[in-house]
Amino acid sequence: MAYITLNRKSLAINYSYLQQLFKKNGIEWAPVLKMLCGNKTYLEYVLSLGDEQVCDARLSNLKKIKSINPKKETVYIKPPAKRSIAKVVKYADVSFNTEYTTIKWLSEEAVKQEKIHRIIIMIELGDLREGILGEHLMAFYKKVFELPNIKVSGIGANLNCLSGVMPSKDKLIQLSLYEQLIEAKFGKKIDYVSGGSSVMIPLLLKKQIPKGVNHFRIGETLFFGVDLFSNKTVPKMKDDVFLLFAEIIEITEKSIVPYGNLEENPSGETIDINQEDYGRNHSRGILDIGLLDISKTEFIIPVDKNISFIGASSDMLVVDLSKTKKKYKVGDLVSFKMKYMGALRIMNSEYIEKKLV
Question: Name one GO molecular function term (predicted).
Fold first, then answer.
């Protein structure tokens, strides 16, 4: 059975690195834990690493976090759906919002639950996912400010989440100016200017974050140690927090070229034949994991760099073992590092065992 491991030591190193980085720059941060897909063992460990508030995009995960540590401050990082309003107020101390109607529902529910629900107003900076247009912010804030049991704790933005628009110092200056306009017009303090996600880390390392931006939500760099500008590992961080292990269930010398009439496979792919491969064989290994678990082979990277992918079906992954120096046999494990979306898909699979090592 395939399984995934979370390495406690590597994650602790990454967490500590980010704690020190943000503290040095006078910025607060919140780990984004949706990667863990509500796994209780993993959540308990991450929650033990620090006192920071935590973020998630699934209410079931926030509920589990509150069951582990009722005092942990939680942030729901997407605009709430109407049917989820009661749970948002119950399990999230803060939520991201862009629609007045939704905030009005949150206000009504917060009154029922006798709570003050805090919100962060998300502003559009060009990536064209969630966010109100900047020219509407003053009127929007005025209406929201008048709602009972709602406190605007901050403004925020997301970049590089949908359209691939990268952050820049200019965009962050624009975000911090909105905060200054609100404070000047309404005389109300905005606690957080939440600049974005892991994609902001390279700007922070280059001292390109404007002074007014004082909050970040970090997931991918925490769990993968990656610089999302260069796609390389940040110095002093670890890229092996997660490892995937799949068992070899067959090894056979087979033809490189399939034989028979070729049509599209179940994934809609048609195999291209290299004429030079006719008559040649190679060592093909089959692993006990498939597209149902990993979505795409591009999302996982063999630790043994001499292993390459041949193809995948829903439940099996076929690899080329011809160039590796290791003498693999049936029953051996092949290990993989993962990209963010690959690990997210695997963590969400009920068929992959999760281990803490």
Answer: pyridoxal phosphate binding
